[in-house]
Design a protein that fits this description.
This protein is an alpha/beta fold. The protein folds into two domains: about 160 residues, SPOUT methyltransferase, trefoil knot domain (Alpha/beta knot, 3-Layer(aba) Sandwich), CATH 3.40.1280.10; about 60 residues, Helicase, Ruva Protein, domain 3, CATH 1.10.8.590. It is about 45% helix and about 15% strand. The protein is built from ten helices and seven strands. A seven-stranded parallel sheet has the order 3-2-1-6-4-7-5. Helix 1 links the parallel strand 1 and strand 2. Helix 1 runs parallel beside helix 2, helix 1 runs parallel beside helix 7 and helix 8 runs parallel beside helix 10. The chain is elongated, with a radius of gyration of 19 Å. The relative contact order is 0.15.
Amino acid sequence: MTIRIVLVGTTHPGNIGAVARAMKNMGLSDLALVNPGKFPDKEATVRASGATDILENASVVSSLEDALTDCVYVAGASARSRTINWPSMGPRDCAERMLLESKHGKVAAVFGPEKSGLHNDDLDLCHTLLTIPTDSGFSSLNLAMAVQILTYELRVAGMLDTGPGFESEVPPATGDEMERFYAHLEKVMTELGFLDPDNPRFLMRRMRRLFIRARPDKNEANILRGFLTAIERERSSR
């Protein structure tokens, strides 16, 4: 499967090992760690229980952007409500969608730190929220449990006929390509006075939501960048 599990800011090395074990049980092997608290570590190896190859091959990066640079679709796990509504899916629907999107390139599921979960800045890089329904009186899932639920659903969905997927001659823009577009868009909007550079987050978050829903392909992303460049040229010629 072209599916990556991304752990952001995991504080306990044993949880990293338990996640590796959950992944291997369900046939996944691509693990990325963003600023882990302690890794490599003996406790991670012990908790991996035979999945040490996943730990040995795990990529360790300093930012979530680096972990997602080649991804065309990203689901971010979150149990908290958000000020701006993100598209949201349960694990079964999310697994099916991830498998469909994986036909176009690498996809990822992102899980945040054990205590705080993902921040809104992390979710800005995601196409959908992954929410695991639990009893309203007790909604505390261990990190490895959450990963196991999704990887199980991915395993089940992979055994079913998920249909032809989203047919397109041009693959979707990657995370890296979209990040370059967002940076370009923010620059142009600031130059035009449409965006307050001292308080850009709220508007940019809404713009990200808009383009995530639109899902530009590589050609469309290039067209958008070309449009922004044309605006810059016009302004500089005046």
